[in-house]
Amino acid sequence: MNFFKLRISLLLLLGVILLYLILLFLKVSGYVSTPIFLIDLDERVMETMSLWRTSELIKIFMGATFLGAAKFVVALAAVLTVCLSLWKRSHFIVPFWIVLVGTEACVFLGKISLMRTRPDIAVYLETSASFPSGHAAISLALYGFLAYLLTLRFKKIVHKILLYSLAIILILAVGFSRLYLGVHYLSDVIAGYALGILWLIVGMIVVKFIMLQRKKIPPSSEKYLI
Question: pTM for the complete prediction?
Answer without folding.
Answer: 0.80
